[in-house]
UniProtKB/TrEMBL annotation:
Bilayer-crossing regions: 47-74, 86-105, 140-158, 179-198, 204-224, 236-257
Main location: membrane
Membrane topology: Multi-pass membrane protein
Pfam families tied to this protein: TauE
Compartments it resides in: Cell membrane
Name under which the protein is recorded: Probable membrane transporter protein
Entry similarity comment: Belongs to the 4-toluene sulfonate uptake permease (TSUP) (TC 2.A.102) family.
Keywords associated with the record: Cell membrane, Membrane, Transmembrane, Transmembrane helix, Transport
């Protein structure tokens, strides 16, 4: 019944809006499937041009669940289960804090902080020198990265940056990194989606946009897997950092000039 209602509402969405949501979903999913994370860094800022934050973030989480499920099935042998387990457990502590931020923080400051976070992380990853090398899992770093990932995921659907930092410290290869992060994203995103649901954020409108996005996801997932297998070492991340800096700057400009997303 819920799906029927959403399918019925798709006809009310203008063609440009549908194409926009579809295209951004494809690009964001391709980034996620190729690099293991980052679809929210692409999707949420660009979705905000057309839909409100409280719709964009849950929609991004539904995309995350779909991608993670497919990748876990594809590449389960590449998953570092111990790392994923502890990251998930520590993220559980941060997700409720992030949801509170999403519910009660002012949209202006959310956009500013999200844009600044994207720029700071991408700049660090592109130009910074990570001198920490963890030969085995480290509980303190697992806690820091997992907890921060939970907060950012609950607030912005932005779990990835702390996880990428941990993966860089552990010197995971591209294939290993991609698979292990999906083992984290699948339960973490499901928990986040449940939190959105009980707070009234997982609604007809979110599912409506998700149905528009769905046909774009599977081609992007399989193309991303192919591209991921072509990369060597952690240098593959550099291809996305410049684009992330541009998106972060655009999001800040969008907030400063008070450009509101469409309410459709």
């Amino acid at each position: 019944m819920l799906i029927n209602a959403c399918v019925g509402t798709i006809t009310t969405t203008t063609l440009p809006s549908s194409v926009y949501i579809f295209s951004i979903s494809f690009i964001a999913t391709l980034v996620r499937s190729t690099f293991g994370f980052g679809e929210s860094l692409v999707a949420v800022p660009l979705f905000l041009l057309f839909i409100p934050l409280e719709i964009a973030v849950p929609l991004s989480v539904l995309l995350s669940i779909t991608v993670a499920l497919v990748v876990v099935v594809q590449d389960h042998r590449q998953i570092h289960l111990s790392s994923a387990k502890w990251l998930i457990l520590f993220a559980l502590l941060g997700i409720p804090i992030g949801i509170l931020i999403l519910l009660y923080a002012q949209a202006y400051w959310v956009k500013i902080s999200l844009g600044a976070l994207i720029i700071a992380y991408a700049t660090y990853a592109l130009y910074g020198k990570n001198t920490i090398h963890l030969k085995t899992d480290h509980k303190w770093w697992l806690f820091i990265c997992g907890f921060l990932s939970g907060i950012l995921g609950g607030a912005y659907g932005l779990n990835g940056p702390p996880l990428a930092i941990y993966g860089n410290m552990r010197r995971w290869t591209a294939t290993y990194f991609r698979a292990t992060l999906q083992a984290y994203f699948l339960p973490a995103s499901l928990i986040g989606a449940f939190g959105y649901f009980i707070n009234g954020l997982m609604n007809y409108t979110v599912l409506h946009y998700f149905l528009i996005s769905l046909p774009a996801l599977f081609p992007a997932i399989f193309l991303g897997r192919y591209l991921n297998q072509k990369f060597k070492d952690a240098s593959f991340f550099n291809y996305v950092y410049i684009g992330l800096i541009a998106i972060g700057a655009f999001l800040i400009i969008n907030a400063v000039f008070d450009v509101h997303p469409s309410s459709s």
